[in-house]
Amino acid sequence: MPTVASRPETAGFVEGSDDPRRVLVRADGELFALSGVCPHQGGDLSEGVVERGVLWCPVHSSGFDCKTGAVVHPPAPGPLRTYEVTTDGDDVYVRV
Predict the structure, then answer these.
(1) Residue 85: beta bridge partners?
(2) d(Cα 42, Cα 29) in Å, to the nearest integer?
(3) I want to staple 43 with a disulfide (CB 3.0 to 4.6 A). Which of 8, 16, 27, 57 is the partner?
(4) Cα separations (Å) of 60 from 22, 29, 44, 48, 65?
(5) How far, in Å, CA of 9 to CA of 84, rounded?
(6) Domain ranges for the chain
């Protein structure tokens, strides 16, 4: 099982979450939790790609800043909600 430190820059479901509408991403060496549904047309962001700190929607290529959730590339009409992330060793906690 990979450790938190070894996770690549990708998107994926928050492990242990009872709400799959959130994603945990690694970008620029940090972990961020964001809404997992694109506000444009409901694309599943857990299938997205992270490049240079931007989470890209797999449906219509909306881009979101991983740290702030801000739209950096349309067509998304608004930002993603962000959630506080803390770690304790290899355990990751997301405040919802």
Answers:
(1) 94
(2) 27
(3) 57
(4) 19, 26, 11, 11, 16
(5) 18
(6) 4-95
pLDDT tens-digit series, residues 25-71 = 888 888 899 999 999 999 989 888 888 899 999 999 999 999 999 99
What fold is seen in the domain 4-95? Rieske Iron-sulfur Protein (2.102.10)
The answer to whether the beta carbons of residues 77 and 53 sit under 8 Å apart is: no
Report the alpha-carbon distance of residue 56 to residue 46 in Å, rounded. 10
Which DSSP letter does residue 9 get? S
Is the distance from CB of 22 to CB of 94 less than 8 angstroms?
A: yes
Amino acid, res. 17: S
